[in-house]
Amino acid sequence: MRTPTPLDELTRWQAVWRQLPLLGGLVVLWVFLWDHVDVLTITTGIVLAIAVTRTLYLPPCCSAAASIRGAGSCSGSG
User: Fold this and answer.
1) 1 domain-assigned
2) Domain count, the chain
């Protein structure tokens, strides 16, 4: 049986708040690609950013040390 980690206990809103920097970065990238700031560009950037983060989901990483060790999970086993 697996022991729960702090990342397992995230509420839906906490998960949304964790995604905001990524969503904001994708919207800014979209605006830079179009080189034109208006309501339609920002709206389509938001829609596209949400679609990308939902279809190409990346699990949250606990720490850089876990990825450097190559543990593959936040628990350190593996």
Assistant:
1) no
2) 1
